[in-house]
Amino acid sequence: MPQLLTKTPENAGTGPLTSAAPAGPFRSFHAPHTLLGFTFTLRQVVFGLVLLYCLSPWSSPPVALALGLVLAQTTGNPFGAQTKKATAKLLQFSVIGLGFGMNAHAAVQAGREGLLFTVASICGTLVLGYFAGRWLKLNRSVTHLISCGTAICGGSAIAAVAPVLRAKDEEISVALGTVFVLNALALFAFPPIGHALAMTQNQFGLWCAIAIHDTSSVVGAAAAYGDQALQVATTVKLARALWIIPVALGTALAFKQKGVKVKLPYFILGFIVAMLLNTWLPALQPVGAVLVRLAKIGLTVTLFFIGAGLSAGVLRAVGARPYVLGVLLWGVVSTVSLYVILHAV
Q: Transmembrane region positions (predicted)?
């Protein structure tokens, strides 16, 4: 958890306290104040208070993401480097914790139902992304990163494929920015659509796993719909994430890259172990219930951190064409998978 206060005089004049304050109504939030030997800014205090709310039982993943987005556009995130580093780890531990609320038998059934959808949607998205990227005259690396993020599991897929591509930092940032913005939209849009179409828990969970990019938003949207939707969505999404490995290897061949290493999503193994323990060791279920509650809190905080990182500067830096590609791919995957699920599941 980021520190709210910074001790002086050792740290005075360093870190976020010395960043240039922006013009406008929130300029005063960047000014340093001293109390009892500690130096802090009002935006640090605001960040800390919102974080405490996200840790409370009154918050939820959509609310946390919305609060993060509001914070990013107003006072800004005073702990950007720390939250960026914590987001990936916190999400991984949260996913493992959710495994203690899953049943292995139900997960296998959900995985079987989602396998055909997974294979078809991944292959179709990568092919469509290739041709759409050429049509939009986008950089080949950016096109492939956005396509992989849409096809598999958002930021995790981009992080795994980027080293294989030897992608530049700005290319990775563009892809991540595109995916995270669409993730935020999906988290708010999918539950109302599911209710309007009277989707079953199983249908909605499957749709989330296929049509929403990042695991955090998949779990957040499914949790807002119901426990069964959450179980189906998490299981299918994590099974889908395993496709990072063959897609990364295929990327190395397609882009003729040699001597690269593929980053394996080891946290998925932790999820499977937690699920097996919950299924075969009933005595652990009371402890598992606590871990599941902590995991859901961790997910809520993760989405707050993601929202707090989507500043206006990040949104502008992406540019129009990557968003067009991202929206096009997302729109096709969402509508086609929704049609198939409503008529076949």
A: 45-70, 90-108, 114-133, 145-166, 172-192, 204-226, 238-255, 264-283, 295-315, 322-342
